[in-house]
Design brief:
Helices cover 40% and strands 15% of the residues. It is an alpha/beta fold. The protein has one domain. Strands 2-1-3-4-5 form a 5-stranded parallel sheet. The relative contact order is 0.19.
């Protein structure tokens, strides 16, 4: 039996490319960019985190070290994006990861996308 599809809500941190650089992600999920869509450039990381929690959005960031200390069980989750990856690779790997899992998998957790990519190849 196929797993039910869940349309995850995500929040791109301002250090990531604009959301139109991720066509697959946009096709399947509700994607917002903190700077370009919400017009909140320069918002301190704790406030970005609280906004993500309030809106039920998984935080997508290259700035993991500032978000990890904020992680709580009520957070939809944080996915760490490797800074050197091109948008096309981020788009395919992130879409694949989100398609495979329900919100409970991400809730209150930090998932490094590079590690998630490696474990999916091993499994």
């Amino acid at each position: 039996m196929a797993k039910p599809f869940f349309k995850h809500k995500t929040l791109l941190d301002e250090h990531l490319y604009q959301r139109r650089q991720y066509p697959l992600l946009n096709e399947h999920f509700d994607v917002k960019h903190i700077r370009d869509d919400l017009h909140l450039a320069g918002l301190p990381d704790p406030q970005v985190y609280e906004l993500a929690v309030k809106q039920g959005r998984i935080i997508l960031t290259t700035n993991v070290k500032h978000f990890l200390p904020l992680l709580r069980d009520d957070c939809p989750g944080i996915i760490g994006i490797p800074g050197a990856w091109l948008p096309s690779r981020i788009d395919t790997k992130l879409t694949s990861l989100l398609m495979k899992h329900s919100p409970n998998y991400f809730r209150g957790r930090y998932i490094p996308l590079a590690t998630a990519d490696l474990t999916s190849k091993v499994a």
